[in-house]
């Protein structure tokens, strides 16, 4: 029972995702090329980081609109952003 409480506390620490983070995650999920495999009896979809970086650099998120700043400008900014999504347990 204590494990359940610890797990519940971890879920609450993640917090709400911002709108742009949801948009980036959705873009990666549906646009970035993925592969499938079986791992420990479960079907797992995964993507290659270099293809995800290229996909995000080519997206509309990397292009600035009038009066706004682009979300991604260089590869390092994409890596930092993906690390933030990883810390929020959006993917493993």
UniProtKB/TrEMBL annotation:
One cellular component term from this protein's GO annotations in UniProt: endoplasmic reticulum membrane
Keyword Secreted assigned: no
Lineage, opening ranks: Eukaryota, Metazoa, Chordata, Craniata, Vertebrata
Family according to the record: Belongs to the SEC62 family.
Topology of the protein relative to the lipid bilayer: Multi-pass membrane protein
Subcellular location: Endoplasmic reticulum membrane
Transmembrane segments annotated in the record for this chain: none
UniProt source species: Chelonia mydas
Keywords associated with the record: Endoplasmic reticulum, Membrane, Protein transport, Translocation, Transmembrane, Transmembrane helix, Transport
Sections of the chain in a coiled coil: none
InterPro entries for this protein: Sec62
A GO BP entry: post-translational protein targeting to membrane, translocation
Name of this chain's protein: Translocation protein SEC62
